[in-house]
Every structure is written in structure tokens, then in C-alpha cells.
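Customer escalation, tier 2.

The customer says the design service returned an amino acid string that "doesn't look like it belongs to this structure." They asked us to rerun it and document both sides in this ticket. The original C-alpha cells are below, unchanged.
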């Protein structure tokens, strides 16, 4: 295998259906994953995409051909499959999902026996088998078996989340919750969980439809207008929107205001630190200074990481941390599982609203306020590394962190992060400040500096 050949991106294998990700490719990926696990018991499931069943069956053929037994769970949120891997003491799992990507994409994520995505080193091993075609085919009498496990997995997942929160306290409040599942698998679990927590549930984009007719599966402000309007129009207490595989959740308050993930993670973080003194929490350098402020105020210790959910999960395991969070709406609640989990996050927020007696808007309003401005600067992939070096040289006098790209903190609580995208030919800039004008000024200033550096390469 040449060193440039790669199968896995930052979050599993991703590609356009029947262009990059054909049944033929999926069978071979199944063979490679099966060879890596070596005759073990694996869970297999998929999200709501039109290609889910086709690709799951292709992967299933590859896995069983190498002698792995496949326990097929059908359609499920990624966190539900991850929980089931651990709960059913499987050796691992595979989920067919492209998470927040549009409907024409799909992907394959490999899960280790602890429910967390496989590490980079394990992915390299699977890639080596794939590109070398060194598949270990089983003989006809040692082929893996297929067992149906659908039906119980999502119910067990819901029951497990209920064990993590005070069901009685939440039930007494009779919250009205609007759930926007993007026509995908979040609709299979969260509305049921909400009902079991005594909430009144209104669902939008609830029917399973792999063409995603309601909205794009990326839960960003531009795609959540309907959720915001619905919450306000019917006087609900809170709205929640999931991405395509329901591991990330974005919330809307009772006034229809949409919050990015930092603000809701900060609410969970504060409550967690009040109950777990001096705890260590894990978050990527792209997170808001708000997270640092909350951790400082409530005696928490932050472990900063590179951007990427798999990195956060693995670091949580390494430092024995019970809470992680990302600005894109990923909350990792260790007592349940150290992976992003949209339904778990929703239950935690409702519990906090019940315990404090405060509305979501009030919980957000009591936090320090920050403004974030983002930009993308085009940069060909082959120039990313040299640009990175130039950025280090240029800004080494500032207060910087080089955990991922360059993050600079300034005296007035403003900051900027400049990092190469792992998936697009761009550099991303995230500026943050107490005043909107300052954030804008910072992002413009550093965009210009970056363009100047790029021109000289
Ligand atoms: Mg996702």
C-alpha cells in the first residue's frame, strides 16, 4: 500500500453512493474489517439513508466471508449501536452512516468493543488489509452467521439513558418538547424517550425518509427555521434537532432562539462540575472561551485536544474523564458512554431545567456572552503543511497553542483559531470576542494575514 492511499477520514469512510462507495467497495471494506477482527461477533446497523440497506448487506457479505458473526440491528442512531456493542459484550460493530452529509453520501464507521470508534492505528491496519487485498477468507464450513437483533436495541438504549437522569423530577415538569429528527434515525428513539420522561412531544420531520425532504441533516441555524418557528408557535419549552445519525444535538429555547453547541455544553458542564468537584473535562481547541470560563469558575480542569470526536472519546478514556463536549453539538457523557449522544444530551438538559426551575433561555443568559465569527480561506491540500509552518513562524511571539493549527488568546478574552480543514481544501478561522465588532475585526485581520502568507508560497 502506498502511504498516500487512505480509506478513512476524520470520521470513518465517507463517499458518494455508487460513485466512491459502490456495493463492490463495501464488500471489500467488509472483508478488510472482518479480517482485522478475525472471526469475532460484530453488530451491524445503518441510518435512514436510501443506500443504508444496500451497503449494510454488502458489508455483511464481506464480514461473514471472513468468518465474523454479524448481529444485524437494522436502523439505529450511531450512539444506540455504540451502546449495544458494550451492552451485548460484542467484539465490535459497524455502522453505515454519513452523519451530517447530504443524502447522496454514505459512510462506514468501525466501533471497538468498548463502544468507541476505532483508533487511527487500528484504521491504518484495516486500510493495509484493504489495499493489499490480504483478506482472510473463511472456508465454506467456517463462514460467519447472521442473526437478527433488531427491535430490542433501541428500547434498551432508551432504558439505559433513563437510568442516568432523575425521571421523576423531569416527569413532574410535563415539559413540551419539539423533536426534529431530520427524517432520520433520531426519530426512532428520542420521541419515545421524551414520552417516557413524562414530556409532551411534538415531532417534525419525523417520518423516516432517506432523501431527507424536510431539511439537510446538518443541524445548523439555516436548516432549523421550521423547528424554531414550531417551538414558538405552539409554546413548547424546548426544541431539539439531530444530525443524520443522532449523535449531535442542537437546541432551541422557548422563544425560538437557536443555540450553537458551546452554549448548551456549557450548561451541562456547569451542572456536572457542581456535582463532580475538580473533575477533568475534555474539549477540542475549537471550543469557546465560555467553556474555559465555566471550568475556571467551578473548579474544573480542561484537557484540550485536536478537533475530532474520536480524539475526544479516546482522550476521555486515557485521562479517565467523565465529560466531553464540542461546539458542533456533541456532548460525551461518560457515565452513560464516552461518545457523542444526542438523546442523552437532551435528557441531561431537561434534568437541569427541572432541577434549577429555569427556562433554557435563562440558563443561557446567565453565562458569559461571546460572539463567534468564522471564515474559510481557500488553500490547496498540497500547500496546507507549508502554510502551517509559515503560520507558526509568523505568530510564535503570541500566546499560542499548537495542539491543532494555531490558537491565539489575547488579553481581552478574545481568541482566534486558524486550522487546516481535514475534509476540504480550505483553512478555517474561528474568531471569538466579548463584542461582535471585535470578533469581526479579528477574523478580517487574520484572514488578510493568512492570504498574504499563502501568496508567498
Ligand atoms: Mg453524526
Amino acid at each position: 500500500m502506498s502511504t498516500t492511499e487512505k480509506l478513512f477520514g476524520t470520521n470513518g469512510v465517507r463517499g458518494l453512493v455508487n460513485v466512491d462507495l459502490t456495493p463492490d467497495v463495501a464488500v471489500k471494506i467488509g472483508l478488510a474489517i472482518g479480517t482485522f477482527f478475525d472471526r469475532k461477533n460484530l453488530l451491524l446497523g445503518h441510518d435512514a439513508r436510501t443506500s443504508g440497506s444496500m451497503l449494510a448487506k454488502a458489508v455483511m457479505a464481506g464480514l461473514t466471508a471472513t468468518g465474523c458473526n454479524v448481529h444485524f440491528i437494522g436502523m439505529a442512531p450511531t450512539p444506540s449501536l455504540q451502546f449495544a456493542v458494550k451492552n451485548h459484550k460484542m467484539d465490535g460493530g459497524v455502522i453505515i452512516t454519513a452523519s451530517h452529509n447530504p443524502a447522496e453520501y454514505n459512510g462506514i464507521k468501525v466501533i471497538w468493543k468498548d463502544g468507541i470508534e476505532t483508533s487511527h492505528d487500528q484504521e491504518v491496519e484495516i486500510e493495509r488489509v484493504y489495499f493489499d487485498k490480504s483478506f482472510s477468507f473463511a472456508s465454506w464450513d467456517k463462514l460467519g452467521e447472521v442473526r437478527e437483533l433488531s427491535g430490542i436495541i433501541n428500547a434498551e438504549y432508551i432504558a439505559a439513558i433513563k437510568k442516568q437522569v432523575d425521571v421523576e423530577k423531569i416527569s413532574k415538569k410535563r415539559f413540551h418538547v419539539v423533536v426534529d429528527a431530520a427524517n432520520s434515525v433520531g426519530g426512532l428513539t428520542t420521541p419515545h424517550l421524551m414520552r417516557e420522561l413524562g414530556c409532551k412531544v411534538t415531532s417534525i420531520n419525523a417520518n423516516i425518509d432517506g432523501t431527507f425532504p424536510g431539511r439537510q441533516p446538518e443541524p445548523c441555524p439555516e436548516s432549523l427555521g421550521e423547528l424554531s418557528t414550531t417551538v414558538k408557535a405552539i409554546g413548547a419549552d424546548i426544541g431539539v434537532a439531530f444530525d443524520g445519525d443522532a449523535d449531535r444535538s442542537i437546541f432551541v429555547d422557548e422563544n425560538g432562539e437557536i443555540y450553537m453547541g458551546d452554549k448548551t455544553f456549557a450548561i451541562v458542564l456547569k451542572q456536572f462540575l457542581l456535582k463532580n468537584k475538580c473533575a477533568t473535562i475534555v474539549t477540542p481547541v475549537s471550543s469557546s472561551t465560555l467553556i474555559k470560563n465555566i471550568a475556571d469558575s467551578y473548579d474544573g480542569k480542561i484537557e484540550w485536544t485536536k478537533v475530532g470526536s474520536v480524539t475526544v472519546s479516546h482522550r476521555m478514556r486515557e485521562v479517565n474523564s467523565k465529560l466531553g463536549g464540542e461546539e458542533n453539538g456533541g456532548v460525551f457523557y461518560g457515565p452513560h458512554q464516552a461518545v457523542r449522544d444526542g438523546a442523552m444530551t437532551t435528557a441531561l438538559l431537561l434534568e437541569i431545567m427541572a432541577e434549577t426551575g429555569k427556562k433554557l433561555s435563562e440558563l443561557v443568559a446567565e453565562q458569559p456572552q461571546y460572539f463567534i465569527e468564522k471564515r474559510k480561506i481557500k488553500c490547496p491540500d498540497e500547500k496546507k503543511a507549508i502554510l502551517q509552518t509559515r503560520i507558526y513562524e509568523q505568530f510564535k511571539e503570541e500566546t499560542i497553542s499548537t495542539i491543532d493549527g494555531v490558537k491565539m488568546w489575547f488579553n481581552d478574552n478574545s481568541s482566534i483559531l486558524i486550522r487546516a480543514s481535514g475534509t476540504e481544501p480550505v483553512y478555517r478561522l474561528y474568531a471569538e470576542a466579548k463584542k461582535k465588532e471585535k470578533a469581526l475585526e479579528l477574523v478580517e485581520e487574520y484572514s488578510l494575514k493568512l492570504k498574504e502568507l499563502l501568496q508567498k508560497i
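Tier 2 assessment: The sequence is consistent with the input. Residues 261-365 form a domain with the Alpha-D-Glucose-1,6-Bisphosphate; Chain A, domain 3 fold (CATH 3.40.120.10). The chain has four domains: 13-151, 156-257, 261-365, 371-455. Sent an explanation to the customer and offered a walkthrough call.
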